[in-house]
C-alpha cells in the first residue's frame, strides 16, 4: 500500500488501480498435490497474529485440476480476473478467476518447471515457459499457441523471468550452468550469455561463459530491472548488471541451495536499502542486495522453504514451505530498548526498520 500511495501522490498511478488493490487483497498458492487455493489476505481481526481464510480452491475433485505438483502460479499482471498455473503434469493453464474454469490449456512434451508473464508489457501477451527440455517456449495468450522457441541452452530450463523494465527482455536459467538474456524480437534471440569471470578466463576453461559452477535454478531482477540476481547449486548467489551482463562480484558468502528444481527467491521494493530473500533450509536468509551483507535469518517454518515472494504495495513477504504452511512476514517498526536501570523497557523506532521482520503466522 505504501508503494501505491507514493506512486499516486506523484501522479504515476491510476487511482482506480489503488482502489482495486485495496479491495482485492488476494493471494494464489499452488501445492504439490496439484491443488490451487485463493486466500483473502485482509486482517479483519486487526490482531498481530492471524490466520488468513481460503476463499475458494481448485481441488482434487475439479475436472481441470493439475494432476501433479503445481510449480508456478501468477496473476495476470493487468487484471486479477485471470491467472495462470503450470505443473509437472506438462501443462500451462489459463484460468478465469470468477468461474474457476480453464480459459485455455497449453500442453508440452516435457515437465514444466517455471513460467512467467511480463509485469510491465502492454505490447505482447507472451508467457515464457521453462521445461525439462533445453528450449524456452513462448506462449501467446492472444493466439492460444506457442509462437516462439528460444534455442541456446543445452539442458533443462529451471527458471525464467521477464525484465520489469523492458517489454521484450527475458532472462533464463538452466542446468547447463548458464544464464542467458534474450530480446524476443530478434531472430537470433540471445543478447548475452552471462560469464562469472567477465571474459577473463580462456575459452578453453570449462567454466568459461558459465554463470555458476553448477545448475542455475533461480533468478530474479531487482525492482528497477537494472540488475539480475542468480542462485546455483554451487551454493553461490551472484549479482549482474543486466544491461552489459557484467558480474558485479558482490560476495554473499555461502548461500545454501539443495533444491533439485527451481528455487523461487525474491527482492524487496521500496525499502530504504533493498534486500534479497532466499530460502535457506527451513529458514529464509536476508541479504542486502548491493553489499552482500547477511542481515538476518527468518525462522518460523518447520520444514524446507521452497519459495518466497515480496508484495511491494503492502511491504509484506510471503513464504511457502513443505510444512504445508504459508507465512506472512511484516517489518517491525519498533523494538524494545532497556532503560538505564534495566528494570523497565521502552520502545524506539527500529533503526534498521526493514531488517526486523516478524511472522504473522499465516497458515495455508
UniProtKB/TrEMBL annotation:
Subunit description: Part of the CSA complex (also named DCX(ERCC8) complex), a DCX E3 ubiquitin-protein ligase complex containing ERCC8, RBX1, DDB1 and CUL4A; the CSA complex interacts with RNA polymerase II; upon UV irradiation it interacts with the COP9 signalosome and preferentially with the hyperphosphorylated form of RNA polymerase II. Interacts with ERCC6/CSB (via CIM motif); promoting recruitment to lesion-stalled RNA polymerase II (Pol II). Interacts with KIAA1530/UVSSA. Interacts with a subunit of RNA polymerase II TFIIH.
Spans annotated as Disordered: 339-364
Subcellular location: Chromosome; Nucleus matrix
Entry-linked PROSITE patterns: WD_REPEATS_1, WD_REPEATS_2, WD_REPEATS_REGION
Source organism: Rhinopithecus roxellana
SMART domains: WD40
Biological process, per Gene Ontology: proteasome-mediated ubiquitin-dependent protein catabolic process; protein polyubiquitination; response to UV; transcription-coupled nucleotide-excision repair
Protein name as it appears in the record: DNA excision repair protein ERCC-8
Renumbered ranges of WD repeats: 63-105, 150-185, 209-250, 298-329
PANTHER family from the UniProt entry: DNA EXCISION REPAIR PROTEIN ERCC-8 (PTHR46202)
